[in-house]
Write the structure tokens for this entry.
Amino acid sequence: MSVTVITYDRDMARWEPGARERLERAAMELFVERGYEQATVTEIAGRAGLTQRTFFRYFADKREVLFSGGPALQELMVTAVAAAPQSAAAIDAVGAALAVAGDLIQQRRDYSRQRQAIIAAHPELQERELIKLATLAAAIGGALRGRGVTEPAASLAAEAGVAVFRIAIERWHEQENRQRDLPDLIRDSLDQLRAVTGGR
Amino acid sequence: MSVTVITYDRDMARWEPGARERLERAAMELFVERGYEQATVTEIAGRAGLTQRTFFRYFADKREVLFSGGPALQELMVTAVAAAPQSAAAIDAVGAALAVAGDLIQQRRDYSRQRQAIIAAHPELQERELIKLATLAAAIGGALRGRGVTEPAASLAAEAGVAVFRIAIERWHEQENRQRDLPDLIRDSLDQLRAVTGGR
């Protein structure tokens, strides 16, 4: 079974180098040019110089192109939580994960901004975003439990961290001049959460 | 236009006293007895002694029966945020809203437990729950801004509060013996959030 899978991946890699990235780029170009609803899978594949069939090897549907980075980001964040110093408090382990994610997304600023605008305009994409963020929070909560953090502290720290992440990304995109970068806004939002919750 | 609406509401009230509550009760009975998927709108209406047409006056679809309490709960919580003493910190105004919601849900413990079990078993219901909770957080954030709380503190306090609310309800339902009531678990979860985020 695993041999079959490996062969299949090799074939894909040989036939279509960088297919996933080409499809993502083509999709975003078309979403921006023609609007998310208007762009079809056939057009996206055509723009990427690939077939519709290849598109569906990588993505279940058109929506999923906008969420394809999610699993890798989640894995990075879970790894960062696990790798934080054993002495780190739960919220600081979460902060380390947010910092890693912030660095990565900062490098794809224009893509992130375009993606955010499309999601904001489509309720069904907002739903999927909420589900992905809930999954991310659950994964981070699991990683905290793996560090020995008990419930409900693990879930609370994870949910609060994901709220900070989401709100920091919104602040980042809302800036007129982009004077502050995402890692900075994540740190600031986490500090503000501390101030808000600890402030009495 | 508003005259028409008022007449319509009056007619409904005269024709079907307590129709909404009867439909909710009938729906939950059927969901528990036969499973959520199997129960049809026709059966729910029949069990409540009403017509399918009456059902659709109150609810857009079968799913919506499980979320019909949401808008009233949200309004109560928003009112509680606005009514908190002017000197109260943002998180304490949110805590007041959670306390009001906790008291109300505590009185419908069995309904809440059955509802939670059905939602947990159906991804499409979890999606709707996530959307409703995101809407609730946005409304609470708006109420905090109405008190003069600035962003991102308002959104952070609101999101953190809704996370506390959700996690406290989960803890409440997970208890073997129900030894702690929901308002108590909400207070405790809020304290644990403070400890988690303020703990350095």
